[in-house]
Every structure is written in structure tokens, then in C-alpha cells.
Amino acid sequence: MDRMLYTAMSGAKNAMDQQSVVTNNLSNVTTTGFRAQLQAARSVPVQGDALLATRTSVVTTTPGSDFSQGPVEFTGRALDVAMQGGAWMAVLADDGTETYTKRGDLQLDSDGVLLNVGRPVMGDGGPIAVPQGAQLSIGADGTVSAIPAGEGPEALVEVGRIKLVTPDEQVLTRGDDGLFRGPLNEEGAPGALPGDENARLVSGALEGSNVSAVDAMVSMIDVARRYDMQMKMLSTADENAQRANSILSIQG
Fold first, then answer.
1. 3-class secondary structure per residue, the chain
2. pLDDT in tens, 3-17
3. What is the pLDDT of residue 62?
4. Burial level of 117, CB count in 10 A (0-12/13-18/19+)?
5. In angstroms, how far is CA 43 from the centroid of its own chain?
6. Predicted local distance difference test score (pLDDT) of residue 220
């Protein structure tokens, strides 16, 4: 009975945790450059006052992300970029650390700073700023060029170069803000990865989420059914306990 209760309880908790991961993936099925989260579970013995050989609990984790490429859609917008292959774009996070993303729908703020979802895009020497009202173009190597307002093509000037990196994706960790960070440095903070001169992007295009809506919906239904099954096991265990108590009362 004890084993049955802990098995069903752990299974139900794992199903709830997995449902939250699946729900997050499904809610980002249209988010540009999103990478699906993975979910895993492992059994561990219960520690402390409840320690018994029959009691085992489940610990759920999100060990990583699915780094497969999402679909690329051509938009024709000058500030839309899609990273090719294993290339990632460097952006400045709110905490001041350098982070990395596959999202490429860039914007300009009122000061002419190039932004990625409100965060400055990093160049070789820091955030990239462009002249107000300039016509922009982005090259395959990340070079940002501008034609000042009222000028012709002959006035084209280079104003910066987007920092692109090609990391070992298995060392990247996802933050709560959805951005990815490199390995920790000696100070215990995420370190900045070196730029890759050979990394390339496609201008006028966006890479979509790599989450399959169909697969996510199937997973959601499967997890919901497994949760219901575990709850029925708990209900059955309770009924068995009540019947056993009744039999013992009669015998007593």
C-alpha cells in the first residue's frame, strides 16, 4: 500500500510539472526564434523522517532545450534577420550580462540604438547606435550600414557589426528571461563568448519557433491522461485502505 501511494503521488507530481513545460512550449509556438524546453524525471529515495525502503519520489528537471532549427520565413523587412546554422546573436540583458538569442525581429529606439525585444544588440564595441532617420541594411556577416536621411546610396556608411557567436549549444543555459547564457567565469557570472567571424545571417527573414503545435497538443493530452490515471490509483489505494479497516474492525 505504501509503495502504491508513493508511486501514484510521484507520478501525479511529475505529470503536473511536465504539463507546465508543455504548456510553456505551446504558448510560444509563434514566438520568433523560440527553442522548446525539454523535460526529464528521475526517481530518488525519500529522505528524512519519512525514509522507508518502499518510499521513492520523483524529481523533475528541465535538462536543456531542443536546439533544432525552426522554419525560416522571408519578410522583406530590413531589420529582420535569421541566424544561419549554429549562429546566435549577442544582446545585453537587463542585468548587464551578455546573452544570446535566435530571435531576429530588431527595432530602433528613440535614440537610434538597435534593440532586440527592448534589449540593446551587441556589436564589436558594445551596443550599436545608428543616425536618426537613416535607411538601414544588414549584411550577411552582421554588418549594419546606413544611408543618412536625405542622402543617396553613395553616402552609405558602416555604423557597426552585430556580434554573432557559434557556441557549443550544450553549454548554453536558458535564463528566466528566455535568453541563453554561456558558461560561468571565474567570478561565477555568465561569461561572454568570443565572436565568430564566419557566422552568417539572412537579412529580411525570421526564424520561427521550433515547437510543433501538433506534437505539443498530443503531449498535453498524453500528460493529462497519465495524471488522471495516477489520481485513480490514489483513489483506489484509499478505497483499499478503507476496506481493510472495515475487515479488521469486524475481526476485532
1. CHHHHHHHHHHHHHHHHHHHHHHHHHHCCCCCCCCCECCEEEEEECCHHHCCCCCEEEEEECCCECCCCCCEEECCCCCEEEECCCCEEEEECCCCCEEEECCCEEEECCCCEEEECCEEEEECCEECECCCCCEEEECCCCEEEEECCCCCHHHCEEEEEECEECCCHHHCEECCCCCEECCECCCCCECCCCCCCCCCEEECEEECCCCCHHHHHHHHHHHHHHHHHHHHHHHHHHHHHHHHHHHHHHHC
2. 777 778 888 888 888
3. 65
4. middle
5. 25
6. 94
Q: What is the pLDDT of residues 29-46, one digit of tens each?
A: 999 999 999 987 777 777
Mean predicted confidence (pLDDT) in 157-184: 92
Which of 159, 177, 184 lies closest to 94 in space, CA to CA? 177
Q: Determine the Cα angle at 121 with ends 92 and 154, to 5°.
A: 160
State residue 142's pLDDT score. Answer: 95
Query: Predicted confidence band at 251 (pLDDT cuts at 50, 70, 90)?
Result: low
**β partners of residue 190:** 184
Q: CA 56 to CA 9: how far, in whole Å?
A: 10
- Bridge partner residues of 100 (DSSP): 90, 180
Going from the C-alpha of 240 to that of each of 175, 216, 233, the distances in angstroms are: 45, 36, 10
Give the mean model confidence (pLDDT) for residues 149-166.
92
With the C-alpha atoms ordered 8, 13, 14, 16, is the resulting torsion angle positive or negative?
positive
pTM attached to this predicted model: 0.82
